[in-house]
Design goal:
By secondary structure, the chain is an alpha+beta fold. It has three domains: about 60 residues, Orthogonal Bundle (Arc Repressor Mutant, subunit A), CATH 1.10.10; about 210 residues, Bira Bifunctional Protein, Domain 2 (BirA Bifunctional Protein, domain 2, 2-Layer Sandwich); about 40 residues, SH3 type barrels. It contains ten helices and 14 strands. A seven-stranded mixed beta sheet has the order 3-4-5-9-8-7-6, with helices on both faces. The protein has a five-stranded antiparallel beta sheet with strand order 13-12-11-10-14. Helix 2 crosses helix 3, helix 6 packs across helix 9 and helix 6 crosses helix 10. The longest helix is centred in the C-terminal third of the chain and has 22 residues. The protein is elongated and about 80 Å long. The N and C termini lie far apart (about 50 Å). Bound molecules: ligand BTX. Ligand BTX binds next to helix 5, strand 5, strand 8 and strand 9.
């Protein structure tokens, strides 16, 4: 814990009251001038601090601006986000994280940006990442898994996002196979997993999460206006991105640890409880044929399980689905 983090913790604990410069100086073991300098730094990060002679200091308002500091204060994780890299603008947090991972960035490193100029989706598609309106972040993970288990990390991330939205906004989202998060049939988040592996071991996974938070409809480009939504559009509430990132990381860390210790069963069950159109009939197209089938669930390797009209079961690793 740095002095700054300690200071913030003390101020937050005393939110109703002033805490004197002397008190802070004793508890932090720094001079009163140093306390004052720290306050000036906090103000630069967007904290509004009131200083009253003979009473002391008090936080009046918290930053809305996201920074590595604000993200770390109040973060309740053990290892995820211990190393935070925040940029106002990048081409893609995914590209940056892959670069960092290839040069040895540690497990749990989080790269996050206010804006991406070339956000990426799957298969060279692009991901629209409006400045300061969403969460655009990539997690560097080194899971003790075989390369063919990597899709499980994507499914895990989808359940985490769904849980956070469900708990925080009391809106139950759906997970559309393989990895879209939908609210009222519109896409609110996407997940992109990329990895580096040797034959029998994953070296690292870079898990990209794009979550639309405070966009209004007009902020989306016309091509995606019909299919995209944001948490604000669905909940009618402006949301604090820092708080949301912290909730996602906390929930992710807990879920990831359960997964590593106990395996995939719980996640599979949870995924299926959010699964979009499970039990319903859809039309599937593969390069060879097109047919109508019922979605049943997922397999532990992330494949989609369907039940055909003739009663046969089938697992699909990739398919074009008409929803
Ligand atoms: P995807 O290929 O499933 O989705 C991409 C498609 O979704 C696009 O072709 C477009 O139709 C639609 N789309 C684009 N932007 C948005 C948006 N903001 N909201 C809803 N729909 C949209 C999903 O790929 C994976 C996206 C991962 C994004 C994260 S952000 C942090 C990290 N960095 C990075 O470059 N990518 C990941």
């Amino acid at each position: 814990v740095t002095t700054r983090q300690h200071l913030i913790a003390l101020l937050e604990k005393n939110i109703e009251d002033y805490i004197s410069g002397q008190d802070l100086s004793t508890k932090l073991e720094i001079s009163r001038t140093a306390v004052w300098k720290h306050m000036k730094e906090l103000e630069k990060d967007g904290y509004v601090i009131e200083a009253v002679p003979r009473k002391g200091y008090k936080i009046i308002d918290f930053p809305t601006k996201v920074s590595a500091n604000t993200l770390q204060w109040g973060l309740q994780t053990n290892w995820l986000g211990n190393h935070f890299i925040h940029r106002e603008t990048v081409d893609s947090t995914q590209t940056m994280a892959l670069q960092l991972a290839s040069t040895g960035a540690e497990h749990g490193t989080v790269v996050i940006a206010d804006e991406q100029t070339a956000g990426r989706g799957r298969m060279q598609r692009n991901w629209h990442s409006q400045k300061e309106q969403g969460i655009w972040m990539s997690l560097i993970l080194k899971p003790p898994l075989l390369p063919n288990q990597a899709p499980q990390v994507t499914l895990l991330a989808a359940t985490v996002l769904a849980d956070v939205i469900n708990d925080y906004l009391k809106i139950r989202p759906a997970i559309k196979w393989p990895n879209d998060i939908l609210i009222n049939d519109k896409k609110v988040a996407g997940i992109l997993t990329e990895m580096q592996a040797e034959q029998d071991q994953i070296q690292y996974v870079v898990l990209g999460i794009g979550l639309n938070v405070n966009q209004t409809e007009a902020m989306f480009p016309t091509e995606i206006r019909e299919l995209a939504t944001s948490l604000k559009m669905e909940s009618k509430k402006e949301l604090n991105r820092t708080e949301l990132v912290q909730k996602i990381l906390k929930t992710f860390e807990q879920s990831y640890e359960r997964f590593v210790n106990n395996g995939f069963t719980d996640i599979k069950e949870k995924w299926e409880s959010y699964g979009y159109k499970l039990g319903e009939s859809v039309v599937i197209t593969t390069p060879k044929k097109q047919w109508s089938t019922v979605l049943e669930g997922i397999e532990s390797d992330g494949a989609l399980r369907v039940m055909n009209e003739d009663g046969t079961r089938q697992t699909l690793y990739s398919a074009e689905i008409k929803w």
